[in-house]
From TrEMBL:
Belongs to the DNA mismatch repair MutS family. ATP binds at residues 621-628. It comes from Pelotalea chapellei. This is DNA mismatch repair protein MutS. This protein is involved in the repair of mismatches in DNA. It is possible that it carries out the mismatch recognition step. This protein has a weak ATPase activity. The keyword Cell membrane does not apply. Residues 695-711 form the DNA mismatch repair proteins mutS family domain. The keyword DNA repair applies. Gene3D superfamilies: 1.10.1420.10, DNA repair protein MutS, domain I (3.40.1170.10), MutS, connector domain (3.30.420.110), P-loop containing nucleotide triphosphate hydrolases (3.40.50.300). PANTHER family: DNA MISMATCH REPAIR PROTEIN MSH1, MITOCHONDRIAL, DNA MISMATCH REPAIR PROTEIN MUTS FAMILY MEMBER.
Length: 870
């Protein structure tokens, strides 16, 4: 280091404090990068890599980007997972002898972005802080610096922490310096491994330090006043997030004024597998919004509303009153079509107030940001007038929360020009009439420029030199330029200032006096305008709390309007939500699939689930017939209702669920040595351990990843467990190709058989997409294989093998699966069982038959069933 130039010594010293960031080192009009930083940046940014000390044997790689257009370069580096440390000149080079002092003024990380160009408008940009406490307790805090949102909770167990992390979907994760990824619980480790992980020093996680940090930020006397008295590890996680924010931002963050403490039990719990399988916010195949439930329901007019809708779908409610308030609000907006249309018109003109508020609070906003704030506030009075007559409690509370902020709107209107320049330092940003001194300086500047034009005409007449011009140069100022052919006519009072190749430049005392006056005024104008702008910005920032409340109200209003629009367009109905154990849906439809153009009409279906008679619906039927679609639509309708949305059905009664579980499909995790079947069993085990009588379970093809006998055994035992275990007894949709499981309905009172209706014609299968009572006799897998283009010889041979297998399926007319070591053959059965004679089975089955309501298709299925029993 001693052998380097003073500038390189300064660079290396500053860089040593930020080893994990790419250092943008300000050099005049450029940010320059050196050594390894230059090698990385040149490759990612596709810019020229050069070197200092060329040919010396000690070359230093470097590259640079212009400071005035640095944002896209930073965004590209952040997108690839890098951090960027911005090192500025903190002294005026004109007033400094020797090397200019430089300091890092901000570290930009993926989770701490605020620049609009680097952020997705409809996505939050979260930093997630994790803190593992005693007894497998986990403190979780997450914040979005761009909007000021800050939340904290505490959960028990690694799987719960992993599920919450998946729900938050952070851009960056913060862990303590000593935490090794290998020591994290498996679910959490898998999630963290794929994310950008940053570290905070171990001492930051000391309780007293984090306590003081959190209380200081939110002006609280103690954590108790913030609701954190029962969350010691959540408090530490929140403090660690604030420390990381302050260390990297290196400036005040006044717009983060509130910390929201929440319990996970306040919301419908959705594990990562369920979020993925139901495609709530992104599709499974491509991870895109389009094709998900969010994409289906998003008709929001603002970025704030789009982000809020995603939150509502990610965190559906379990409280009956809040759910009903949302539904009543959507209902009123649905009925008031004219008001709804006018609300949409006003909302479309409102900018992202949450992020504008953040940039203003952190002194990063420019003149255009303030005008965007003004133009948005200008629409609020009309919007409030539209809301005032509405009667639902939620809309009335939103009307109260949305503040027109008249004084701020007037301040910006008086102070900032309608079309401000991008730069804050070059003037032209403050409106005429706002400041008397500024207006006087502008008048002097205008008068001085007019004087220059008059002086030029006067000197041409006095000297007789028609080509005489008065020019301006940033270095030499104003001068009279005369070509060399006219030098003989130069007056004696001209003072030579500069010699050019074909001309001489002169100055007079009169011109010099006006130059000082004009240039002094222009410099003072720029300086004063910047000062005035900062004062206006600070006055707006002082009201960040009111702006945040207004933005919050507008976001919720936007979501309610969006839900009403979708309900109107697609014929959704208001669900009846209560605390019963019933889920009753009439003509339910899949919200996403029915909105797609798939070439066939979507067939609605009914659903009845409850804890008394219809706890488990055992659904059989062929592939491609619609079993999975049907089950998913029931789960999505339940979720939509608890999020406060109308639902795609003719009628719906939804008994509130505490959790939704899905076991739909799995893939290998070879890195952890887990096969598809292992993951399937792990997911099923998690469901059985955590489900309650208020849960909704969607089981699709459990046990299919192993041999037939093993799979049937596991599926049978799982269904029995859900039915028999008092702490479980969840409402369950259980789809299977194991026809043997249909016999569970004869041994368990709350299991009912349903199948997907099909029609066979000329050895072809036609899917009717209708769910009807009964069970399928076979899966039509061979017919589906034919549709897929399987060779004819394979199809014919498969039919022969199937016939041979089916002949040995039953023993003495009863399914062998029902036998149990716990059951004695001599025991009297309290209900109809599978161990009666064939004749008794036939008699009992026929006694239950109601010919007056039996359809032809059901009669054919029954005839096939009776034939097998014989």
């Amino acid at each position: 280091m001693a052998e380097q130039t003073p500038m390189m010594r300064q660079y290396l010293e500053i860089k040593s404090g930020y080893p994990d960031a790419i250092l943008f080192f300000r050099m005049g009009d450029f940010y320059e990068m050196f050594l390894d930083d230059a090698l990385i940046a040149a490759r990612i940014l596709d810019i020229t890599l050069t070197s200092r000390n060329k040919g010396s044997g000690d070359e230093i790689p470097f590259c640079g980007v212009p400071y005035h257009s640095v944002t896209p370069y930073i965004a590209k580096l952040i997108e690839t997972g890098h951090k960027v440390a911005i090192c500025e000149q903190v002294e005026d080079p004109k007033q400094t002898k020797g090397i200019v002092r430089r300091e890092v003024v901000r570290v930009i990380t993926p989770g701490l972005l605020i620049e609009a160009e680097s952020l997705a408008p409809d996505e939050n940009n979260y930093l997630l802080a994790l803190c593992q406490g005693e007894g497998d307790q986990w403190g979780i805090a997450w914040l979005d610096l761009s909007t000021g949102e800050f939340r904290v909770t505490e959960l028990n167990g690694g799987p719960a922490a992993a599920a919450e992390a998946v729900c938050v979907h952070p851009r960056e994760i913060l862990l303590g310096e000593g935490v090794e990824l290998e020591t994290l619980p498996a679910d959490l480790r898998d999630f963290v491994t794929d994310k950008i992980v940053s570290r905070a020093p171990a001492w930051v996680y000391e309780r007293d330090y984090t306590r003081s940090l959190v209380c200081d930020q939110f002006g609280a006397a103690s954590p108790e006043s913030l609701g954190l008295e029962q969350m010691p590890w959540g408090l530490i996680a929140a403090g660690a997030a604030l420390h990381y924010l302050r260390e990297n931002r290196k400036s005040a963050i006044p717009h983060i004024r509130e910390i929201k403490v929440y319990q996970r039990s306040e919301h419908l719990a959705l594990d990562p597998a369920t979020r993925r399988n139901l495609e709530i916010t992104a599709t499974m195949s491509e991870g895109k919004k389009n094709g998900s439930l969010l994409g289906c329901l998003d008709r929001t007019s603002t970025s704030m509303g789009a982000r809020r809708l995603k939150q509502w779908l990610s965190y559906p409610l379990v409280g009956l009153e809040p759910i009903r308030q949302r539904l009543y609000a959507v209902e009123e907006l649905l009925e008031q079509a004219g008001v709804r249309e006018e609300l949409v018109a006003q909302l479309k003109g409102i900018a992202d107030l949450e992020r504008l508020n953040g940039r203003i609070g952190m002194a990063s906003a420019g003149g255009r940001d303030l005008r965007a704030m003004h133009d948005s506030l200008q629409r609020i009075p009309a919007l409030v007038d539209l809301l005032a007559p509405l009667q639902s409690d939620l809309l009335r509370s939103l009307c109260t929360a949305i503040d027109p902020l008249d004084e701020l709107r007037n301040l910006i209107e008086r102070g900032i020009v309608e079309s401000p320049p991008f730069s804050l330092r070059e003037g032209g940003i403050i409106a005429t009439g706002y400041n008397e001194e500024l207006d006087e300086l502008r008048a002097i500047s205008r008068e001085g420029k007019g004087f220059i034009a008059r002086l030029e005409a006067q000197e041409r007449a006095r000297t007789g030199i028609s080509s005489l011009k008065i020019r301006y140069n940033k270095v030499f100022g104003y001068s009279i330029e005369i070509t060399k052919s006219n030098l003989a006519n130069v007056p004696e009072d001209y003072i030579r200032r500069q010699t050019l190749a074909n001309a001489e430049r002169y100055i007079t005392q009169e011109l010099k006096n006006y130059e000082e006056k004009i240039l002094g005024a222009e410099d003072r104008i720029c300086e004063l305008e910047f000062t005035l702008f900062q004062e206006i910005r600070e006055q707006v920032a002082a009201q960040s709390g009111r702006i945040a409340r207004t933005a919050d109200g507008l976001a919720s209003l936007d979501v309610l309007v969006s839900l009403a629009l979708v309900a109107d367009e697609r014929g959704y109905t208001k669900p009846q939500v209560d605390e019963s154990d019933s889920i009753e849906i009439t003509d339910g439809r899949h919200p996403v699939i029915e909105s797609m153009k798939l070439g066939e009409r979507f067939v609605p279906n009914d659903t009845r689930l409850d804890g008394a008679e219809n706890q488990i619906l055992m659904i059989t039927g062929p592939n491609m017939a619609g079993k999975s679609t049907y089950m998913r639509q029931v789960a999505l309708i339940t979720l939509m209702a608890q999020a406060g949305s109308f639902v795609p059905a003719a009628a719906a009664r939804i008994g509130i669920a505490d959790r939704i579980f899905t076991r739909v499909g799995a893939g290998d995790n070879l890195a952890r040595g887990q096969s598809t079947f292992m993951l399937e069993m792990m997911e099923a085990a998690g469901i059985l351990r955590n489900a309650t009588p208020r849960s909704l379970i969607v089981m699709d093809e459990i046990g299919r990843g192993t041999s037939t006998f093993d799979g049937v055994s596991i599926a049978w035992a799982v269904a029995e467990f859900i039915h028999d275990t008092p702490t479980c007894r969840s409402r369950t949709l259980f789809a299977t190709h194991y026809h043997e499981l249909a016999e569970l309905a004869t041994t368990r009172e709350r299991i009912k058989n349903y199948t997907v209706a099909v029609r066979e014609w000329n050895d072809q299968v036609i899917f009717l997409r209708t769910i009807v009572p009964g069970s399928a006799s076979h899966s039509y897998g061979i017919q589906v294989a034919r549709l897929a283009g399987m060779p004819r010889d394979v199809i014919e041979r498969a039919k022969e093998i199937l016939h041979n297998l089916e002949r040995g399926e039953y023993e003495e007319g009863a399914p062998r699966l029902a036998k149990s070591r716990k059951t004695k053959s001599t025991e009297a059965s309290p209900q109809f069982t599978l161990f009666e004679s064939n004749e008794d089975l036939l008699r009992q089955r026929l006694k239950k038959l109601n010919l007056s309501v039996t359809t032809p298709l059901e009669a054919l299925n029954l005839l096939d069933e009776l034939k097998k029993m014989i």
